[in-house]
Amino acid sequence: MTKKKSDRLALVHDLAVKKREKADQYLAESRQRMTQAETQLQQLEGYLREYQEQFTQNGQQGFSSSQIVSHQAFISRLQHAVRQQYQTLYLARDQYEQVLKHWQHSYAQAKGLEKLHDKALDAEQVQRDKKEQQQIDERSQLTQRSGVFSSD
């Protein structure tokens, strides 16, 4: 016996829902990575700013040339770390946008299949109702005919 269209669509819809749920998970993970990259960048920039302010305040007392060279090297490393973190954030945002597009596609696909499945169920219900009405009409006609024959 062949399966009903709604049964076949239910299977495809279930697969699409699982795909969408995976996309939900990937989207959440990607958003978390992006948020972590933003937080880390803010922390690095804040630390760089604090270190420069502290050095400026302490610089009023005077520094030796080795302290200045050491400070400049450390500032340079911090600035490099900030640039790298900007790159990490850029990549995280780019990945998030790609994952978001995938999620939107998966969501739309699951929603479309759900509507198709619902339409198939509705069509099958209409068919069942018609068949039931036809059977009722046939029984009614048989009852009327047998009533006509029994009254003679």
Automatic annotation (TrEMBL):
- Compositional bias of type Polar residues: which residue ranges? 141-152
Report residue spans for region: Disordered: 124-152
Ranges in a coiled coil: 20-54
User: Example GO biological process term?
Assistant: bacterial-type flagellum-dependent cell motility
- Coding gene? fliJ
Pfam families this protein is in? FliJ
Molecular function terms in GO for this entry?
A: cytoskeletal motor activity
Membrane-topology descriptor: Peripheral membrane protein
Q: What is this protein called?
A: Flagellar FliJ protein
**Family statement drawn from the similarity comment of this UniProt entry:** Belongs to the FliJ family.
Primary location: membrane
Organism expressing this protein natively: Nitrincola nitratireducens
User: What are the leading ranks of the lineage?
Assistant: Bacteria, Pseudomonadati, Pseudomonadota, Gammaproteobacteria, Oceanospirillales
Tell me which InterPro entries the record gives.
Flag_assembly_chemotaxis_eff, Flag_FliJ_proteobac, Flagell_FliJ, FliJ
